[in-house]
Write a structure and sequence with these properties.
The strands form three sheets. The chain has a five-stranded mixed beta sheet with strand order 2-1-3-10-4, sandwiched between helices. A three-stranded mixed beta sheet has the order 5-9-11, covered by helices on one side. A three-stranded parallel beta sheet has the order 7-6-8, covered by helices on one side. About 50% of the residues lie in helices and about 15% in strands. The protein is an alpha/beta fold. The chain has a domain at about 10-165 and about 255-295: Bacterial extracellular solute-binding protein, family 7 (D-Maltodextrin-Binding Protein, domain 2, 3-Layer(aba) Sandwich), CATH 3.40.190.
Length: about 375
């Protein structure tokens, strides 16, 4: 049997064809077809996260929704980073059919095309992660993503975005950093276009998955780093190698999870199961947001009270320098016609939507200060 023929005879097709054949032979063996028809489809999903990361809990929330909505017709085998392939290799594994699905972020396959970073860690035009997730679903982003993955790169995948992440901290530093001069020459961990951004600001960059950050810090491979949030950061021991934690930044302010599915796997499913896999992303997005609010906020307090971490807001000087660096990068990236098309689409969306968001938003900091005076460091 050729590779193509073997691929066509997927285990999903086998189950369905087996059930049909069994039905034809019902007079001979009645019990076997019924058992075969009820056998669940097992979907192998690997994440890009260590087993201990809170994002594995987020993936489990997705799994619970898929399995319940499908009446257990789909069962998901959840695997951590490295179980089948490395954290940054899940896109290739899904494309090749080595795994059926992945829970990851687009920036992890940034090496295939820099435009991957636009679907989560691109320039900040003034919109939040919620603004940009809305762009994906209502502003043309999903079609641009399809064009990149399927037309430009020829990837055999479907991808959907879920859980608009809170803006990622500037990161972890051994000493205070308040000016652009303070970060010159640092060896810093980040990923995607944020790597280009930080290099433009005077740092050298190592792009590492989360599980490799603390060992790299301990060996002196890097001097500072960012990953994503207080819960993930504390679970892999960020507080053991640095004590100054800087919140707020423009380097990754609009990221969402990416749910990847092998196209052949998805196309081979019944339409209702396809819909469940797709729309469970939206359901999990809500539950992930609620869990993130609960855990991130609690873990930030623990970092301060139990681990001696000093929490800062990134200085306006550094934030302004990030915007200047984005301007430089944008001018270079726009030389590529596809990347210009994506950024034009995003700017148009943000120009309309964020104007409403920002004009309509009350000063929540003022209200917070009213009821919890002295807590904010503004």
């Amino acid at each position: 049997m050729t590779k193509i023929e073997n691929k066509a005879l997927s285990r999903r097709s086998f189950l369905r064809k087996g059930a049909v054949a069994g039905g034809a032979a019902a007079g001979a063996v009645l019990a076997a077809p019924a058992v075969l028809a009820q056998a669940p489809i097992v979907m192998k999903m690997q994440t890009s996260w260590p087993a201990s990361d809170i994002w594995m809990d987020f993936a489990r929330e997705y799994i619970a929704r898929v399995e319940q909505m499908s009446g257990e017709r789909i069962k998901i085998d959840l695997l951590p980073a490295g179980a089948v392939v490395a954290a940054f290799q899940v896109m290739d594994a899904v494309h090749d059919g080595v795994i059926d699905a992945a829970h990851t972020v687009p920036v992890y396959w940034y090496g295939k095309h820099k435009a991957a970073s636009f679907f989560g860690t691109g320039p900040v035009f003034g919109g939040s992660a919620t603004t940009m997730l809305s762009w994906f679903y209502q502003g043309g982003g999903a079609e641009l993503y399809r064009e990149l993955t399927q037309d430009i790169l020829g990837l055999n995948v479907y991808g959907y975005m879920g859980f608009p992440m809170f803006a990622q901290p500037f990161g972890w530093f051994k000493n205070e950093v308040n000016t652009v001069a303070d970060i010159q020459g640092f060896k810093y961990r980040t990923v995607g276009l944020a790597a280009d951004l930080m290099q433009a600001m005077g740092m050298s960059v190592a792009q590492l998955p989360g599980g490799e950050i603390v060992p790299a810090m301990e060996r002196g491979v890097i001097d500072a780093f960012e990953f994503n949030n207080p819960s993930s950061d504390s679970r892999f021991g960020a507080q053991d190698v640095a004590k100054n934690y800087y919140l707020s930044s423009y380097h990754q302010a609009s990221e969402s999870f990416e749910f990847l599915f092998n196209k052949d796997f998805m196309d081979d499913l019944d339409p209702d199961l396809q819909a469940i896999l797709k729309y469970a992303v939206e359901a999990a997005s809500t539950s992930n947001t609620a869990l993130a609010m609960k855990e991130y906020s609690a873990d930030l307090v623990k970092l301060q009270t139990e681990s001696g971490v000093t929490v800062h807001r990134t200085s306006k000087e550094i934030l302004a320098a990030e915007l200047d660096a984005w301007d430089t990068l944008i001018a270079d990236l726009e030389k590529d016609a596809y990347m210009k098309k994506v950024m034009d689409s995003q700017r148009e969306w943000v120009g309309q939507v964020a104007y409403y968001e920002l004009m309509n938003a009350p000063d929540l900091g003022l209200a917070y200060e009213h009821y919890f005076p002295g807590r904010l460091k503004l």
